[in-house]
Structure formats: structure tokens, C-alpha cells
Amino acid sequence: VRIVESGGGLVQPGGSLTLSCVGSGFTFSAYGMRWYRQAPGKEREFVASSADGDADYADSVKGRFTISRDNDKNTVYLQMNNLRLDDTAVYYCLFPGGVRLGAVWGQGTQVTVSS
């Protein structure tokens, strides 16, 4: 299993970014996928998940972030709008695994919100 994120960068407050996460080595459509983030000096925290057609979000990003997926491309996206300074973090994609496969994290992609 391999998980690779991309799309991070520097953006001004109020701006937008879309992160991508490509999974390989497993049947992508059969598994939920999750986004987490870790800000400097803080613990890694849940951001969003996509599973069985349902999406879930942390309260801090509801209404601003949207998770979506393209199973044909083995990709899950995180559309981030109205970014705030406190959204600055390394964003990680998680394949949560299952009965036969263990969980795998991506390497992370840096998102910096700064004026």
C-alpha cells in the first residue's frame, strides 16, 4: 500500500487550496479515506473522512472544507476554502486499513496560511 499527498503550498488568509491523495496497492473504492493535520507543537487531529458515500468533518473545518473522491483515479481530494491562519499544518492522508491490511499514512503536504 502506498499513499501520496500533493497540493500543499502557501496561501493568503481567505484563499483556497485543493489537496490530493493517491492510493495504490489496494482496492481504493472499497475503503474509506481520511485527512488529518498536524500543526507545529500540536497533536495530529482529524480533519475529514469519506466512507460509503458519507463525509464527516471536524467542527473547525465544517462549511469551509470539502472531501471528495474519484475512485477511477484512486484519489481523494480535500478542497479547502476560506483558509485561516490556524489551518496552517502538515496535512496527512490516511488509509485506515482493514482486516487484512494495516493502516498507512502518507508523507504529508505542508499548507501554510500567511499574509
Q: Outline the low-pLDDT stretches.
A: none
Percent of residues in β-strands = over 45%
Query: What is the H/E order?
Result: EEEEEEEEEEE
Structural class: mainly beta
- Count of beta strands: 11
- Helix residue percentage: under 10%
Mean pLDDT: 96
Largest sheet: 7 strands, mixed
Terminus-to-terminus distance: 37 Å
Radius of gyration: 13 Å
Q: Treating each run of at least 4 consecutive H or I residues as one helix, how many helices?
A: 0
Shape: globular
Task: Summarize, please.
This protein has 115 residues and is mainly β. It has no helices and eleven strands. The chain has strands at residues 2-6, 9-11, 17-24, 33-38, 45-51, 54-57, 65-70, 75-80, 89-95, 104-105, 109-113.
Task: Please characterize this protein's 3D structure.
- By secondary structure, the chain is mostly beta strands.
- It is built from no helices and eleven strands.
- The protein has strands at 2-6, 9-11, 17-24, 33-38, 45-51, 54-57, 65-70, 75-80, 89-95, 104-105, 109-113.
- The strands form two sheets. Strands 2, 4, 5, 6, 9, 10 and 11 form a seven-stranded mixed sheet that branches. A four-stranded antiparallel sheet has the order 1-3-8-7, with no helix packed on it.
- Strand 7 (65-70) and strand 8 form a beta hairpin.
- It starts with a strand and ends with a strand.
- The mean pLDDT is 96.
